[in-house]
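Q&A log
Question type: sequence-to-structure
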Amino acid sequence: MSYYKTWIDRSETVTNKQIYADYIKKYYTMEEKAYKTILGAYPDNGEYLEGTAKAMAGKLGFNAETMDIYVGFLDGIKTSLKNQDALDLENLDDDTEVKLDIDYEKLFYNMLDAKADWLYKMPEWKAILEEDKMRQITRDYRDANMAHSDKVGRNEPCPCGSGKKYKNCCGKRN
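Response status: OK
Response body:
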């Protein structure tokens, strides 16, 4: 069975809730350690971003028993890569050459989207993105995820331009 198939089976097919909870907890712990390593070594982090899957996994703290979790890590970071189409997780094995060309702004945004505060609040980000840039990305994320409604409120000005409240104008007819 491929590492990716194992990852999907263990992370998405829940048969025993305790085993699942333990597995996901282990994933989050290892994911955080991997990000701390990659972000902490920036800009000289190339050794963690390119090589065979097994070698890269080892440098990031994954071993033979946790290669499926490493593939889960790759699955999570994939949408933040400039070269995401080059990463074929389903066919990844120990000798597969992997190159992670990370778009750090997109990675930060995606961590916000995942609500992974333990990741986007890491102090290691300060060496990569300026404080203003992190605030701007956070604002962009919030703006993009703000609830919008086209419905006119009862006490809003009527869209017909009469100057009356909607409830006393066109809203009265509905």
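Response note: The radius of gyration is 23 Å.
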